[in-house]
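Hey, can you fold this one?
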Amino acid sequence: MDYELLLCLNATAEEKRNKIPPEVQASFDNRFNIEYAHNSTAIEGNTLTLNQTKAIIEDGISPADGKEPREVYEVANHAKAFAYVQKCASEGRPLDENIVKDIHVLLMENISPGGVYRNEEVRITGAVHKPPVPGEMYRQVKKFFADLPYKGGFNIIELVAWTHAEFVRLHPYTDSNGITSRMIMNYQLLSWGFLPISIAKENRLEYFEALEAYAVNDSLAPFAEMIAGLEQQRLEEYIAVTEEQAPSGSPSPGM
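Sure. Predicted structure:
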């Protein structure tokens, strides 16, 4: 991971952020929001297409091809939960247990009760790792939130990776742990001034393997590298968009 490069790119993106038209910024953000909702729900098995996701988020139009109501709610709820994440992060509120529970409640609206820790054992299909039993899980969740503000020895990207990987390792809810983990990952990125990222559904195998490496072998590096690569792509994309908005005839950087 080239952490210094990420810091440099992020500083460049921040410098350019207030120099592009609001409608361009809004378009950039909206496109991400739709792709993020599509990818994050698809990773969990949602079958809605990108265009159907767009119609739900932008226009409130549900698909007319017999999709399950849960799939529609998952997408609509994702948009609401991410808006809440953006609001709280912009207000400078540190990630804590209450915020995570609020996120889960929003994600589970019209599906099942949210924000309640599981009281039963669970297994993750296809994974070697088995989440802790309820009593031990509850103790570890409390430690997770106690450690969260003070986790030492990590750079920001490693902290972001640990936040996601540790929470999903604990699997504190009976449902939507993955989506919640990706939400709090982006909460941390936004809180530290980075851009949110979306893990493409096509990369779910690499993603699951990186999380399994942490859960089974306590190896955070594969997942941190994955996040760093995605963050670099987002920052470079954003910088390219801002440079496209430069007035005609402006010199290119370095000229």
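Residues 248-255 have pLDDT under 50 and may be disordered. Let me know if you want another pass with a different chain boundary.
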